[in-house]
Structure formats: structure tokens, C-alpha cells
Amino acid sequence: MNDNDRPSPSRLLIALAFAAVYILWGSTYLGMRVAVRTLPPFLLASARFFVAGSVILCWNALTGGPRPTALMWRNGARTGAWLLLGGNGGVVWAVQRIPSGIAAVVVSVLPLWIVLLEWVRGRGRPTGRVAVGVVMGLVGVVLLSRPGSSAGAAGQATVDPVGVVVVALASLSWAIGTLDARRSQVPGAPLLGAGLQMVAGGGYLLALGLATGEAQRLADSHVSTTSVLALGYLIVFGSLVAYSAYVWLLQVMPAARVATYAYVNPVVAVFLGWAIADEPLTPRMLIAAAVIIAAVVMVTAAPPRGTRPR
Fold it and tell me: Model-level pTM?
């Protein structure tokens, strides 16, 4: 059977998959913010990805999928280091210091990092429009990270510049991993590659958590039921449902359309953080968020030849 003979997926299934990628992924920032209230960040992230990755590998084995080879494990371990250790590890640490919505906005500069990385690698020179978008995005990040943005009367919306910088670097790590992930893909079994990355990334995060004394912190702290439920939400809905939907959409929909999650996720995260967690918003935060999202739209709406990840 060739691709033209395969039945087209239903509109309902496509809509549900987009809803998972848009809403569930956007909600994971709040989930991390809630979970790290009583769970140490790196051990939290380790449990999230190791469990989710193990489920995927077990499912692959039970359904007769390809058996992972040493090369697959090596590729998955390398990509998992960029995506999960550097990428998610940086974000989950930073949401201890900055609002979840702000973290999502800074992460959304991912397409800008990819453009710059592809340019450095000689894969194409950005057009003027894309260059303006990149500069706009970086200006927005600087605006967010400048100290002294306070919130109204309470003055509790000061954005920790260290947290913003760490998330920006985490987004850069995720961009490197995204470009590297092409070498980690398993033909015919894309979820297998994701499972290998998650298990390896979970191992890295576990080692980092132990090295930074998080085991003792966990032993000395009272872990709340809310944090445990948040971890469960991240495992099931963030890492299993949403990621599976994302991988499936990349197979049945144009990549440019799937990439729109990059500027929907932060809108969802900012709204949920404000509505559920009472995360404060100042005019400067909103302006910076609008500048960053507009920059991402500018870059992703018309990517220049040679700068799109391939």
C-alpha cells in the first residue's frame, strides 16, 4: 500500500490531536510549577520522562515493534541530553523562580534559535523579515529579564532575570536537540525514538538530581498530594498523550501547521497561570510576551529557504 492508498484521518481525530498539542502542552508549564512546590525539580523531571519512556518502550515491545539497537540507544541518549536534560531540565528548575506563563513565553523563542543555528551551520541566510523577527524575539526576552518589573500595588510580579536566562538557554538546548533529533528517528517507529530519548533523559536528570543533593531534600520535605497529582498529569497528558499526538500530526499534517503550537502554548500557559495559580501579570510582561509571540509568528509564518529544520 502506498501513501495515496491510505485512508485520510478523520477531521475529529485531527482536531483532538491539535487540542492535545495546543492545550495539554500549554498546561504542562503550570503542571511543573505546581509539582515543584514540594518535589525537587530534577528528580521530578527524571520520574516524568523515565516512566513515560518506559511505557512507550514496553508498548513497542508488546506490539512487535523494532528492537532497539546500540546505535538507536546512542542516538537517543545524545538527543535526550539536549532535549530533556538541558531543555526540560532548565525549564523545570526555572519555574521555581518565575511564573509558568513567563517560562512558556520564553520557551516559544525556539524557532528563532533554530533559524540562528541553521545560519551558523551554513544552511541558509535568513531573509530580512526573519532577521527582524529574530531581533524582536531577543528584545522581548531582554525586556522580560530586566530587573525591576513590578506588579501594581502588591509589587509581587518581579521577574527573576536568572530564571528567564536559564529558560532562554534551555530553549537553545531544545533547539539543538530538535535539529539533532533527525539522526535519532527510527524509520517506521517514531515513538520508539522518543521512548529512548525519554529513558536516557530521565537517567541524566536522575544523576543530576542526586549530584545536587535533591535526594536529601526529598527525604526532608513533605510531598503534597497536589504535587504528586501534578507529576501524574505531566507523565500521562504531557509526555504520553500530547507527545504522541504531536508525533502523529507530523505524519499526517504539514509541519508548518503543526508548528503553530509554538505560539499557542504560551497563550494557554499565561492564561492558566493567571486564572488558576494567581500568577501576576504586569503591562511590561504582557508587552514583552506580545513582542515575543509576534516575533515567533513572523519567523514561522514564512520561513526562508534553507533555514527550516530538515
Answer: 0.84
